[in-house]
Structure formats: structure tokens, C-alpha cells
Amino acid sequence: MIVSPDEDTISAISTPIGIGAMGIVRVSGPRALAIGARVLGKNLSKLEAKKAFYGFVRNPETGNLIDEVVFLIYHAPNSYTGEDMLEIFTHGGLVAPREVLGVLLRNGARLAERGEFARRGFLNNKMDLVKAQGIIDVVDARSQKALFTSVYRLKGEASETVVSLKKKLEHILISLEATVDFPEEVDEEEKVVTDLYRVAKEMETLLKGMETSRRLRQGLKVVIIGKTNVGKSSLYNALLQEERAIVTPFPGTTRDVLESQLEYEGYPVLIYDTAGIRTSSDEIETISISRTRQAVKGADLVLLVIDGSIPLEEEDEEFFYDLKEKGGLVILNKIDLPEKIDRKIILSYGFPLMETSALKGWGIENILKKVVEMAFLSNIDLMLTDREANYLEEVLKHIRGAVENLNTLDIVGHHLREGVSQLRKILGEEPILNLTEEIFKNFCVGK
Amino acid sequence: MVDYPIIVIGGGHAGIEAALASARLKVPTLLIAINLDNVGWTPCNPAIGGPGKAQLVKEIDALGGEMALLTDKTFTQIRMLNTSRGPAVRSLRSQIDRILYHREAKNALERTPQLSLLQGEVVDTSLVKKGRKKPIFRVTLRDGRNYLSQAVVLATGTYLKGVGRISSYSYPSGRGMEPPANYLSDSLRKLGLKLRRFNTGTTPRIDGRTIDREEMAIQPGEAGLKFSSLSPPVTREQLPSYLTYTTLETHQVVRDHLHLTASRSTDMVKVGPRYCPSIEEKMVWFPEKERHPVFLEPEGFTTVEYYVQGMNISLPAEIQLKILRTVPGMKKVEIIRPGYAIDYDLLDSLQLQPTLMVKNVPGFFAAGQVNGTTGYEEAAAQGIIAGINSALFVMGEEGFALKRDEAYIGVLVDDLTTKGVEEPYRMLTSRVEYRLSLRQDNADLRLTPLGRKLRLVSDERYKLYAKKVKEIEEIIAFLKGKRKKETSLYDYLKRPEVSLWKGGYSPAGVKERDILAISFTELLKYSPEVLEEVNTRVKYEGYISRENKRMADFREMENLLIPDLSEDTVIQGLSSLGAAMLKSRKPKSIGEFLRMPGVSPQDGLVLLDRIRKRKQL
Fold it and tell me: Could you tell me the maximum CA-CA distance found in chain B, to the nearest angstrom?
């Protein structure tokens, strides 16, 4: 189906993921500027078109900063798509463009289909067919390949999981349609309900695979926490094997949250170094502290650093709340110095304890090994591109929608149709299942 | 100059609606039927409605047609199916008295001014004068009489070269024991029409005095239901149907005689409806099933005959009897009329426009089973469309077509004219993309304004419609204005446990405090129908508005019109299938083009580009 320019506002990342110092996120459609205004906190319609502006993308609900950006606006019809458009230039890497896209999607934009920007441009007379076709072909080729590789990557049990999920949903849908179209001869309602519950449960398992998959795509977020001067930044640097954080013996040197990306045995890991939390009246430090809290909130797991060369303090123990919340490791640092800490108290919290000397580089590899083991433990069952993950999340939404509306099969049917068509897209099949055909194949119906 | 501006050939359900519609639009119409004593006959099961079909009947009614009224006057039983499965699939189903139905149908035709009836077999329809706007047709009867008309509606059902078959015994038949129309097919070919052949079948009729009702489950009707908003409440006593099942013994007898079935013992075509398999086919297609349901449906108030639903059969009559007698409750059954198969000529529906006019023969329309459908409701739905359009054609006005986002009728006609059919086509709710919006309960809200604009909807019907609209608005304003628990009643009603009123289809076990009409008694002055409509509208609002968005996308594609491209010999970049479809089927819009089999989205883009460049020239 050609996608027509319509009420929809679409958005997508236009630059290759994880490559380059900059990411471009595009938004197009009648609400592009309104949605942009929400996340940029500025009235965009008054700004001059095609001129670069500097700004901040924030989560409009919480006010949390997402990225520092440069953006351009375009007014219909003077844009690539012929619609109102917004282009946001974000920081590069894995995280920033995704998070900017994420906040746009949560605020009313829809993820663009393959080649949809080009199609809209064509439909709005912005380019001739040859050009549009060229663009669509490139986009299609790239995602076709991705589709192929992703299907290829769906290996063993996992591959069966997606294919069988689709088959199961299709079968439920066919049973449902046969039941409502031939109520006097077919009654599969009970089976529809029980099968649906079963599939919903399976889907949740699949979701766990999706979490692993997200970590693989976007990187595992590991946040280093601990009170001041325990050697968090030394650990951060040791992990990165480079001097990125400023390491000084003075407490509270790291005022902002630092982020770096590393790979350990091919697993992407994002390490965050945080400011040590101290009760302080320093205003800048207060801001730092709040940023630390935010980083911890978004963490997949935390590394709690404790200085082994001094006795355990109450301040150290407070961090165990975060550890309980997020899971992770206790890092006993400075083991190159005489040990003055009571290990029993630490061990009583029940978290794995790793010994290091960040300064001397002792035990660093063991930490990485352990982290990867913990975070990717649940097997790499599904490797998904963002687009596929997005489709799967949609599928899950529809399965939940179906389960919540079991007393009205017409609504269940609506959700199942949508869910099935998403799954068929992931697997590269025609999105529409020929229901009539399937009903006749599967049921002896009719009078 | 002409005898009748419009001639309708055939007095089945398509012919009836067609003739009534054109005559009601004040265009003098002649309906010709082979046997006027069988007008509106129901040669298969004596039932009207069911999922997909009920929606059609309500839509015909909303446009000002007759089927719903005839059904209400003559049903022996009525029920609501899918009551607990949601309003979008809830469907009325009725059993009708076939003798009464015929009588009422004929009476409706006779009461209609501008409508004349004639008995005879049409053997030829030819063009006396060609013309895009004012052609003249000559319709010839077997005895040589000729009638001239400006438009013809072909509604011949299964009559074209119909052959009835019971095993290897075959006989010329239109339906039942009536003569077929054996000459018309060739005359249609002369007009340039493409014909094909389908088959179908029906079940034996049995003597109700020879069945044991104790051994079957009884299926009673429900009080208080009717199809048409115009019908007065129906209070007559209803007749039950009965449910029993085939046994392994039944299956054995069928299997033992499979070689005798008509399709295996003769050269009959084998293009039958798969949703209506014969008992022989059921054995082959679903060998693992241990039993199949059998419904005994009364044929009327004044007859002992029962229709044996589920027992479509073309084995020899004595074998039919042997088979029936293996079914519980039918050990001593006697057959009055044996079941039979029938094959017949029909038109390839891809030759039709969405107005049901043949693309290459302006003024020539076709409706009903002759277009490849099955079912009285499907036939009637096409009948009213063809009738309206034949009248509009004669008056020189623009044609009337319903779209997929407007009505089940739109889906039906679009499937016929853009996708075509490979077997007799039956309407199903699962064929409808916008099922949550196109419901039987809002058929009047959707279509009555259109019927009114066509001048087909009477003042009485329109007043009822206007009242319903006004009351719905009143209730919604009331709900939005009142508050309960920090929220408007309107939003409160969206909670799954809350109902607007008690009765109808509220979920089982709904608590009194969750029924708004109990606390707000002012709601009780409205009819259940109106309350239910509001209930659905509020509860489904989110889903319906999402569907509306998809409908808008659909319309956008429908509105990208394709001009006459005949001077373009080659369009660069079109796939060969796309080019073939464009040439042979002449789609009117990009949307229609994209729905055709084998057409890819890229074909759509290529064509759009071509159209655009032409405009710039």
C-alpha cells in the first residue's frame, strides 16, 4: 500500500546507527512542529525555516534532559516531504538518537515505515518517480537485508518462537472468525480464550528475550555508584582503559555524569560514572546529585564501589538500596592498600563481591566478565533491529488489548488482526491474511 | 419510443429489489419472470439473515428496500446470533415461511406504481441502438413478443442453462422443478459478455410428521426482534427448529456411495461453494470429524415440510433416505423432495462496474447469483444497487456506488468487481475491513441519508431516522453534562463494568449500581435500540476513531482517480501483471487498482506518476 500524506506525523532516525559523531532524527507531518515544540520546549512556528537553532530535547513530562541538539524546521510545502518537517541533529552513538526518537514517538509521532519519507515526498510532488524509486529501493534493500539477517539470526528455538507465535495467533484469529461468522456450526470461543491466555504468557517470555535484544542493540547500561573518593572514576577509567574522567584525590571531582561505550567480547556496554553523593549546599553539586539519581534510574545494573582501605560507613550502606533495586555488584576497591573493612557486613547484603585495585588495574577484566555474564545470562535468543522490536512491541500491545477485551470477540478480532499483520511484516510476509480462505480450509462450515 | 425504460429479467430476490427500486424512483419498469407464482422463492434454506447477511438486510432496509419488511411479515422464527460477542458481529437470523414470503413479495411488486409484471421466458436481449447514454435494447420472449427498453437488469439467478442433478440423473432446471432459461446465455455472449459456470446444491425436504423431536435439541425463537425499523412489533407465535447430528454410520453410508455423487458420476462443473459443502464433500474434506450438525428448519406455518440444513446432497434419492435414517431422530423419516445439485451459467463479475453496469455495454446491468454470489441477501443487495443505477442511467444521472468503508454492500460489490470470484461468493463479517464501524445496528444511520438523497427513502422511514439521530445526540449531551465520581457520565460509561441500561446485551452479572439508567431514570424514556446504540458508540469510541482514520486513508486512495489512459500504449515501469490489470479491468482509482490481484504498491506509484505527467502536458 502506498502511504498517503495524512494526519499522521512520522519520525525516524535518518543516519546509520552507531556510526558517526552525529545523529539526525527527522519528523514529518502536520503535527511535526507541534510535537517538536513539546520536546524542545520552544514555539517552533515562529522560527525561521531552514536555519539552524540550538536547543535541548527534554522529556516534557519530567523535564529531564535527553540531549543537547541543533535543529532545523521546514514549512510545507518547502521540504523534502512537502509537509511540515523538523530535523534534529543529536549527539552520535547508540543512545542519543534513539532516545530523541523515543521521546518524539511518545509525544505523538509514529515510527516511519520503510521509505515513507520518500513516498510522501513523491506523493506531494516533491520529486519525480525515478528519484523517489531510487530512494525507496535503497531503503528497501537495506531493510530487506536486515530482514534477511534478522530472520537468519532468529536461530534455533527463538526462530521457532516467532514463527510459532505468528501461527498460534493466526490460528486463534481464524477460530474466532469462524466462530463469529458461523456461530451455529462452530463454537471455538472457549478455545480462543484459553489459547489467547497461553499466547499472552509466551509473549511475556519473548519480551525477556527482547530485553536482552535491546541491550545488545543499544548497549547495557552500567552505572558506577558509591560515596565520594572511593575510586569510582579510577574504576571508570580502568574499565575504559583510558583517561577520560578526571581522577583527583579530592572528593567530589566528578560533577557530571560521564558516559562511555565499550565492548567486551562483542557485547556493547555503556558505562556511566556518577558524582559521589554527599550532603552538600553547593548548588552545582546538588544538580550533579540529581543527575546521578537519574542515571541510576535508567541503569540495567549498578556497580557499587566501596573503599576497602577504610572502615565501612553509613554513607556506603545507603547505596545498597540502589543495588537492591537494580541488581549488580559490590566492587571492593583499593585492595592494594591494607584492608580495614569488615567484609562480613558487605557480604551479608548478599551481592557478589569483586576485588579490585582500579589504580593498579587489578581485577578489572573479572568485573567485565561478571557483568556480561549477569546481563546477558538469559541467552541471546532474539536479535532484533529497532524496527522489528517496534513491531513486536506493537504485537504485545495488541495481545494485551485482546486479553483485556475477552467479553467482546469483535474487539479481540480487531487486536488479533493487527497483531498478526505486524508479525507477518516481521517475517516478511504479506500483511493481510486471507481469512475467508483460511476459515474454509480449517472448518467445516456452512449449511 | 421504448415500451418500458427498464426491464428486469428475473423475479428472485435480486429482481424484486431491482424492480422495486427503479419503479420507486418513478421510472416505469417491467419485471419478467418465468413463473410469477414463484416470485421471491427460497429454493434453498428457508432462512434470512445470519452473520454478514443480516448486515446486508439491514442496509437494504436503510436504503429503502423491501427484504427486511418481507422477512418481518413472514418469519416463523427470529433470533440474535453472537449476542455476547460484541455489537460488530451481532447478527439477526430468521426462518421464514416460504409460501408467505413469496406471497408478500409478489404483493409488494403489485402494490408499486410504475411497476408491471409479465410472465415469460426471455430468450434474447440485443442492442437495437448502441449508445453511451441512450441505448435501446430489445428483449424477446420465447413466443416471439418483443419489448424495447433503455436499460436491462439481468437477475436470472441459477436459471441460465441450469441443470439439476441427482446422481447421474440430470434434467433441465432453473431451480426446483422449474424450467431453465436455455437460450439467453448465447444472446449474452453476442452482447460481448464473458460467461462461466458454477454449481451449487440443496438438501432434501422431509416430512415433519416422520421425525422424533424427542431425540433432538430444540431451538426456539426469541421475542421482540425484527429487521426493519418500519415494521410494527411482531408478536406472532414462532416455530422452533431442531438440532441433531450425523453419526459414524451416516458417514459410512455416504462413503460407500461417494462414486454416485453428481460431480463424480457426470461431467458437472466442480466450482461449488466451499462454505456450503455437500455431505459427500464433508466426508472428503473433513474425514477426521466424527459428527456434523444437522438442523431441521420448518418451511412454513402451513406445511409439514422441513429443510435438512447441513445435508446438501446429490446422491440417488434412495441413498439419501438411507443416509438420513442413520441420524438420531430420523430413523423413520420420509423424504418429500430429494436434495439435488445444480449447475448454471453466470457472468464473470469482473466485467461489471461498481454500479453493477456492464463496463462495455452501457445500460446493461446484472445482479444476484448470475454475478457469482450465493444467498438471497447477497442477491437482494445487488438488486437494489442495480435497480437504483438503472433508474439513474435512464434519468441521465450519475451512478450510485457504495464503498468498502460505507457498507457491507460496498464490500460485496467491490469484491465482485475488483477481485472477482472463484466460487459462489457469500458475505461474511470477516471480509469487512471496518467491521467495528459497519454494524447492523447503525445501518440506518449510515445509509438512510444516502437513500433519502436518492429519493428512495419514504418520509416515514426518514422521520424514524431523524428521531434516532436526535435522541442519540440528546443522550450523549446528557452523559457529557452529568458527573459521577469526579468524571463525566460519558467517560464513566467507558468502564467495562458499567452499562447504560439493563437488558439487551449488558455483560452477564452486571451490578445494579453500574447501570446508569437505574440511577438516571430519565434515560428510560428512550428505546432499547437507541440506548444500545449510544452504549456501543461510547464504549467503542477509541476503536472506532482509529478505524475512522484507516477509513480516511482508504478514501484518499479511492479519490486518486485514473483518467482514460487508452492512448498510452506502454507505461514505463509497470509490472506486466499491473499493466494487464490496468488494460483489462480499467480501474477507476489508484485504490481500486491496488486491490486487484497481482498489483504491487510500486505499480501504484508508477501509475500515479504517469497520471501526474499527463496533467502537466
Answer: 80
Query: Do the domain assignments include residue B126?
Result: no
Tell whether A208 and A254 lie within a shared domain. no
Per-residue pLDDT band at A6 (split at 50, 70, 90): very low
**A413 with B435: Cβ contact below 8 A:** yes
Q: Which of B362, B369, B365, B454 is nearest to B412 (CA)?
A: B369
Contact B305, B205 (CB under 8 A): yes
Of A374, A396, A430, which residue constitutes the final position of a domain? A374
> B342, B368, B395: which is the final residue of a domain?
B342
Residues A46 and A34: their CA atoms lie apart, in Å, by: 12
CA–CA dist A341, A411 (Å, integer): 62
A338 and A395 share a domain? no
Other beta carbons within 10 Å of A36? 30
The CA distance from B297 to B311, in Å, is 12
H-only helix segments in A32-126: 32-40, 96-106, 116-123
The answer to whether the CB atoms of A435 and B431 lie below 8 A apart is: yes
Same domain, B284 and B245: yes
Nearest CA among B214, B233, B217 for reference residue B225: B233
Q: How much is the pLDDT for A421?
A: 84
Residue B474 has pLDDT above 70, yes or no: yes
What does the pLDDT read at residue A28? Answer: 93
pLDDT per position as a tens digit, A363-401:
888 898 888 777 765 444 445 555 566 777 788 889 999
- Which of chain A's residues have a Cβ under 8 Å away from the Cβ of B295? 184, 447
pLDDT band at B617 (very low <50, low <70, confident <90, very high): low
- The closest of B370, B365, B384, B382 to B427, measured between CA atoms, is B382
Question: For B259-299, what is each residue's pLDDT tens digit?
Answer: 999 888 887 777 777 777 889 988 888 888 899 999 999 99
Which residue in A234, A240, A246 sits closest to A262, CA to CA? Answer: A240
Write down which residue in B295, B313, B342 finishes a domain.
Answer: B342
The CATH number linked to B612 is 1.10.150
Q: What's A231's DSSP letter?
A: S
Amino acid B210 reads T
Q: In what order do the strands lie in the sheet with B163-166?
A: B169-172, B163-166, B340-347, B195-202
Q: What is the mean pLDDT of residues B512-519?
A: 83
3-class DSSP state of B149: strand
Q: Does A437 touch chain B (CB under 8 A)?
A: no
Q: Which of A45, A46, A49, A37 is nearest to A108 (CA)?
A: A37
Give phi and psi for A156, each to the nearest 5: 50, -130
A411 in reach of chain B (CB within 8 A): yes
Interface test with A, best of B45, B89, B297 (most A CBs within 10 A): B89
Amino acid in position B21: A
The grid cell for B256 is 460407500
Residues of A in contact with B91 (CB under 8 A): 183
**Is B310 in the same domain as B226?**
yes
| DSSP state, residue B226 | -
* pLDDT tens string A221-251: 899 999 888 998 889 888 887 545 545 445 5
**How far off is chain B from A58, nearest CA to CA, in Å?**
29
Q: CA distances (Å), B3 to each of B30, B236, B391, in order? A: 9, 43, 15
Contact A34, A18 (CB under 8 A): no
Residue B176 CB neighbours (<10 A) = 14
- Give dist(CA A263, CA A340) in Å, integer: 34
CB A165 within 8 A of CB A423: yes
- A9–chain B Cβ distance below 8 A for any pair: no
Burial of B117 (0-12, 13-18, 19+ CB in 10 A): middle
The span from the CA of A269 to the CA of A222, in Å, is 7
| pLDDT for the residue numbered A213 | 65
Share of chain B above pLDDT 70, in %: 98
